[in-house]
UniProtKB/TrEMBL annotation:
Organism: Thermobacillus xylanilyticus
One Pfam family from the record: FAD_binding_3
First-tier enzyme category under EC: oxidoreductase
Protein name per UniProt: Monooxygenase FAD-binding
Keyword Zinc found: no
EC number in record: 1.14.13.-
Origin superkingdom: Bacteria
UniProt-recorded Gene Ontology molecular function terms: monooxygenase activity
Keyword Oxidoreductase part of the UniProt annotation: yes
InterPro entries for the chain: FAD-bd, FAD-dep_Monooxygenase_BioMet, FAD/NAD-bd_sf
Keyword tags: Monooxygenase, Oxidoreductase
Length: 395
């Protein structure tokens, strides 16, 4: 594999991870990112579940996530009237994961790739691809290009790579919900390793508290049409603050206080997912992470699935004679699992829609029974997926 080149499109989560693993597999990876610079201090937060932490451990960066993140061992649920609905916790006693700011995770992975000597170029927005036999050339909109033996599209749910190689693939599905959130300080809430969920009278609300008192919070709301992120972010911050004040002013403590204490910019995003695409690759080009199986944030698995993809793909490439054979095996190994997670996460999101009084009554009546059942049932299929870099890929 001497001097074999790998082009990586995207420097979020999957991009740096797969670049590091591909370097171990004998390739020379090069990362190209569309944004003009790093995004270490933008965006909200995400959960790295323990299946994802195992991949970060293999990459040598798990410790930084544990130090910075909020440990998650349970999820507590209340109704908008303050009624205790129950909790979900893992009977094994292991943390479900750690919640960290998205930008921090990006930074940790980017720095790990740079420490491996992997080049990263910003301001490289993919314009087109040219495939000739077993070679691929990426053409960027600044007029430059890069040629390689394979290309990995890690460019997110609205992937340009996917649209170029699979123009007839299904578009992402809008779930009917938008997500918004921010960071607050100054509200007296004790720290505990739990996420608090409130099925509010008008909208869903969730929050976690870091050891230093910083509060990470988010909300979900029904929103019509098929909004884009750009469309939602074009609405002035003052208008979003007015909307949130109206949504949550009559909710249980500490929800209104958290909203009032939020001085940071409020991030607003539409929630889309991508369930099933007929093929994950074409010739020497393959897609991973949100570019091929985006999941809504409800199950807290998006980052972890992307990290799993990175290791499994690189292992397939290491153990196969050709990239196309490796891509075929990668898709075979991953499709069933990721589609199950996307479906599971979509189901969780649908429970947040209830605002009609009759729907709310039956949800609050039945949810305690569902939560007890969920706590008794094992989520091992979700959190305890294991893949070892040193094992040979099964045939």
């Amino acid at each position: 594999m001497e001097n074999r080149k790998a082009i990586i499109i995207g420097c979020g989560i999957a991009g740096p991870a797969v670049a590091i693993f591909l370097k171990r597999a004998g390739y020379e990876p090069h990362i190209y990112e569309a944004q003009p610079g790093h995004d270490d201090y933008t965006g909200l937060f995400l959960n790295v579940a323990r299946n994802g932490l195992r991949i970060l451990r293999e990459l040598g960066v798990e410790g930084r996530i544990r130090e910075e993140g909020i440990e998650l061992r349970a999820m507590n649920f209340h109704s908008g009237s303050g009624k205790w609905l129950g909790k979900i916790e893992d009977p094994s006693g292991e943390p479900q994961g750690f919640t960290v700011k998205r930008g921090f995770l990006h930074k940790v992975l980017r720095e790990a790739a740079q420490q491996e000597g992997i080049p990263i170029e910003f301001g490289k927005r993919l314009a087109n691809l040219h495939i000739a036999g077993d070679r691929v050339t990426a053409l960027f909109d600044d007029g430059t290009s890069a040629e390689g033996d394979l290309l990995v599209g890690c460019d997110g749910i609205h992937s340009r790579t996917r649209r170029l190689i699979l123009p007839d693939a299904p578009e992402p599905d809008y779930t009917g919900l938008i997500s918004f959130g921010g960071f607050a300080r100054g509200v007296d809430i004790p720290h505990e390793p739990a996420q608090h969920m409130v099925f509010g009278k008008k909208a869903f609300f969730g929050y976690l508290v870091k050891r230093d008192g910083e509060i990470y919070w988010f909300g979900n709301l029904d929103y019509p049409g098929r909004p884009s992120r750009k469309e939602l972010q074009s609405i002035p911050q003052a208008e979003w603050r007015r909307v949130l004040d109206d949504l949550y002013r009559n909710e249980i403590h500490p929800v209104p206080d958290i909203i009032r204490a939020t001085k940071s910019e409020i991030g607003v995003y539409p929630i889309y997912d991508l369930m099933s695409v007929p093929s994950w690759y074409k010739g020497p080009v393959v897609l991973i992470g949100d570019a091929i199986h985006a999941t809504s944030p409800n199950a807290g698995q998006g980052a972890s699935l992307a990290l799993e993809d990175a290791l499994v793909l690189a292992r397939c490439i290491r153990d196969n004679r050709s990239p196309e054979a490796a891509f075929r095996q990668f898709e075979l190994l991953r499709r069933e699992r990721v589609e199950k997670v996307v479906k599971y996460s979509r189901t969780i999101g649908q429970r947040k829609h209830a605002t009609n009084p009759v729907q709310v009554f039956f949800r609050d009546l039945m949810l305690p029974f569902f939560l007890k059942q969920a706590s008794r049932q094992s989520n091992a299929w979700l959190y305890d997926y294991r893949v070892d870099w040193h094992d040979k890929v099964p045939v």
